[in-house]
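Fold this sequence, please.
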Amino acid sequence: MAVGLSAAITLKPLLRFHQPHFPKPTPTTLPFSPLRTFHHTTAPRTQKMSTFTVCVLMQDPKQSAHMEIEAQEPSPPQEVVSAKLADKLARKRSERFTYLVAAVMSSFGITSMAVFAVYYRFSWQMEGGEVPWSEMFGTFALSVGAAVGMEFWARWAHRALWHASLWHMHESHHRPREGPFELNDVFAIINAVPAIALLSYGFFHKGLVPGLCFGAGLGITVFGMAYMFVHDGLVHKRFPVGPIANVPYFRRVAAAHQLHHSDKFNGVPYGLFLGPKEVEEVGGLEELEKEISRRTRAYKNSS
């Protein structure tokens, strides 16, 4: 502990008066009488005493040490900050490139297999010269119905499962992502399992029911690809999506889903492609327009 001492000497005379002893009256005696007594008169005496005033100045050692540490630890140089920022940007570019490769390869592979499966299945069905119109109509009708139905399934599952019992997995999607992938991506694989099963059954069997199964699997596949490009690419910018970002309705979809992550309306919207409609139903049209304007300005500044 640092202590400063200062002493001030103050001369403060303290007067102590002693009571004078006056001689008592004595009887008259002879000049040289032995009975004569002599009394000495004591004069008042003054005694001077000096006092010290001590001032103690105390300083907090923690504060002093903190000040010394701050003085000894200068801010990092600009070169270090720039290097860290460049490293972070390079890591983000690497993550986006990794996911872009995965998205392109999966999209190209799934699309090519789907086109090949559709062509081969109906060419195989028409080998006898008869066109199975009912089966073809059922296949394409159910493919559209499955794609639309997946939006309502995703909305229900998002609210009732992902934000409830499966939150421990979906939570990774609501936190800053470390790396190109997240635990929430497992849901894409889970949804792909029934699509593959339906496509396989419909591909290797003839008849109306296999044709309907083939159409359902095809619709789930189409929805999954559209979901990946709009949700992962446009909304969360995990990879560039090109001209998709210029479609006005997709901008509204992206803005509505951003409101879901802001929790302004208790998680609404839980759906994706019909998200703007959900926001409008809860009275969030004004907030939706603000988010669209914000994302438009950010997109123009970045381009």
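Residues 1-22, 24-57, 59-73 have pLDDT under 50 and may be disordered. The chain is about 60% helix and 5% strand.
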